[in-house]
Structure formats: C-alpha cells, structure tokens
Amino acid sequence: MALDIALLMQTGVGEAAEPGGDGRGGSSTMPHKRNPTACMLAIAAARRTPGLMSNFLNGMLQEHERAVGGWQAEWTTVEALVQAAGMALESMAEVAEGLTVDPTRMRQNIDATHGAVFAEKAVVVLTESVGPDEARRSVESSQPSLDGLDAPEDYLGSAEAFRRRLLDEKE
Question: Quick check: is 66 catalytic?
C-alpha cells in the first residue's frame, strides 16, 4: 500500500496523494509539492523487517538447554519488530484516512497509453472467438474495437462490494 501510494504521488503520475495539509510532507524548496512522508516511514519499517527476522531466527539456535545469548538477543529484536510494525500501521492508517485520489488524472494517464493498457483484456475477449494465437497476433498488429474494452470501470471486479462492506454502506 505504501509503495503503491508513493509511486502514485510522483509528479509524472499524480493520481493520488497522502494527506499533507498540516505541514507534514511538504517540500523544503518546492511549496506546491507533497512528499510521501507517511508512506516513507511505512516502507522503511518494512525494509527493516527481513533483517530483524533473520536476527530472530538466528537467536533460535540453542546449545544444551536455553543457552546464554541466543534467546536474550531476541528481546531487542522483538522490540524492534513491534516498533517497526507500529510505525507502519500508524503511518498507513493516517494515509488511508486522508488519501486523496484524482480520477481526472487517472483517466488522462489511461488515455496517454492510446489503448495499450487494454491489450490484455482484448486478447482475453478475442481468444473466445479466434483462439489465443490469433487473438495475440490481432492485438499486436492493431487495436481491435471491442465493446466496453476501453472502460476501466469494467475492471474493478468486486472492489465496489468490498469498499461498501468496509465502510458498512448499503447498496
């Protein structure tokens, strides 16, 4: 979630932004820019975790019965893991509560692909009538015109039902 949102915040994409109106995340030299500060904290916590887990697993090696040093080393590792998880959770809760999405910019980015973003769906739809090889060749050589192909709303699957359930909304 954090990496996705941080990438969506990049100037070349500009489709979403974490909250930043409280002065956090602002650029020191570019007042119009919002940095993905909370996402950065969550990503940094996630990147520390594999190393911490390695330390934890290494501490499991025991000589005789409850050897000295191994299990005691776990104490600080567990503390660091809990702190990292807490930082990531708090940061992403803040992002989720104040995330802004720019549907107009999303549509502009889709349109900028000149239909290439819909190639997979075109192959799937065409495969039903002409087979996979011909479908692939057709999509590679031209841009087939298929009803509903360029409607990203049709790609959402069960997302709306999940969103409503999470927000406890009625349909």
Answer: yes
